[in-house]
From TrEMBL:
The keyword Coiled coil applies. Residues 1-54 form the Myb-like domain. Keywords: Coiled coil. Residues 92-133 form a coiled coil. This is Myb-like domain-containing protein. It comes from the Bacteria. InterPro entries: Homeodomain-like_sf, RsfA-like, SANT/Myb.
Amino acid sequence: MKGRRWTDDEDYVLKDKVLRYIRSGKSQLDAFEEVGKQLNRTPGACGFRWNAVLREKYLKAYHEAKKTRVRVQLERDKSQKIKSITEAIHHLKQYELERHTLITNIEDLSKKIEDVEQERQQLLLEKQALSGGKKQLKWQQEGEIQPYQNLLKLLEWLKKMEDKSENQEQRNIKLAVSAETIDKDRQKY
């Protein structure tokens, strides 16, 4: 089909498609390829026709399409930036919520640690009191037992003294009996 002339309808389709692609931010090469399939022409023939004839003919529309593309890209970038900022704000709020939760948990744990420490101190005081009470009880028991032990020792000593005293009495009685016997025997003689 080499050398086939371009019709006004084909020029219109090529112009319309290329300008639409430019406005939407797509490449002119993609437009040439699509129009080439539609019109049964090569993408190169479409590109040549656009650059050699149609672009100059529709120069004002071409510049408007490029301005629109820039505006669309700026809006898209702005939208993406806003989306990024919105996501960043969301992440910051999420971080703040997690930070607040962690601070609350830390405060709760600190309070529990304080409570446990107070309980531990109380138990230590009770242990010391019981330990002191045990020593006091031991001293008290020793203090109560000691007089009884002293009394027992005294009773044992008294018993020994009594035994000695009895022995002494018995000796005295024996001596007295012996002395009587001797006196009787002396009187006999």
